[in-house]
């Protein structure tokens, strides 16, 4: 009989109530994989997209799943066992990862658990001065911001557009970050500042003080002022809210500028972007352990910090998803598993 662990599983799609904390088989690392004792799990929108049966995707794009599924992608923990040929880390090493993304979209990432088996190439060395809660909060948001803004890190085909996404220069440029209080937004803001950009952060009013503290040069409270009515001549807009409303940022950009919708579904720039001389480009984040190790140095140095909205025990994953559904998240929501 297989050894058991505690995990959060789905036996059906639905609201937060379908997240069940229960016994599940403890994974065994296959060749090239590492078994990690999970200390903390970071939450991301794909966790609720999966829980909900990916209803936001066109039917032909929805991954087929077989229940039960353990959701979640982002973890921080300690190496428990090393599979054949996965010898880049050793037992007791502290690691963090975004597990099998996008390969695991159908529920094969399995992060909401006491143990998770992770391909060795996806593991980053956890920054030493950063605790497991903050490390687990980072991977998907941080890799997304990094792969959009600094280095794509792979040459896999782009599922969202015919061409590869290309980052643009940031030093001395004016960069608007929409959704700047959220997971991707607050890290994109800091990366743009670190690269020497002048950053305009757009968020609801409660995030204002934090965003200035993180380095924003200007803050726009979108509940009072529409950014598209006051901003002109920006070099880059990173829209971490996205969807069809991304279109309104086109006139804020100068000719030769770029618009990066982090959630591009429902937005077709069409002729308008071409007429304005604006490049529109998006990509899908991919697991990358080497990048996590590299960016971990910036976390260790405090150059970039991860902001925590709230922390729940793994057993209360349902409450954590209810918090997410309440919106206006500031930074990241995390589950603790150890
Ligand atoms: N391309 C990829 O591979 C990739 C990777 C990661 C995430 N994503 C997508 O990117 C999006 C953001 O992800 P996330 O993890 O950062 O989500 P998040 O943590 O929930 O952040 C979203 C932020 O948007 C803000 N917001 C909501 N409505 C707004 C509006 N009208 N104007 C300005 N800000 C608004 C929210 O706070 P306030 O309203 O209080 O300001 C919140 O802070 C999601 O749709 C996600 O699916 C895509």
Automatic annotation (TrEMBL):
Domain Enoyl reductase (ER): 14-335
Entries under Pfam families matching the protein: ADH_N, ADH_zinc_N_2
Database matches in CDD domains: MDR_like_2 (cd05289)
Gene Ontology molecular function: any one: oxidoreductase activity
UniProt cross-references to SMART domains, sorted A to Z: PKS_ER
Parts of the chain that traverse the membrane: none
Stored PANTHER family: PROTEIN AST1-RELATED (PTHR43482:SF1)
Protein name: NADPH:quinone reductase
Organism of origin: Azospirillum oryzae
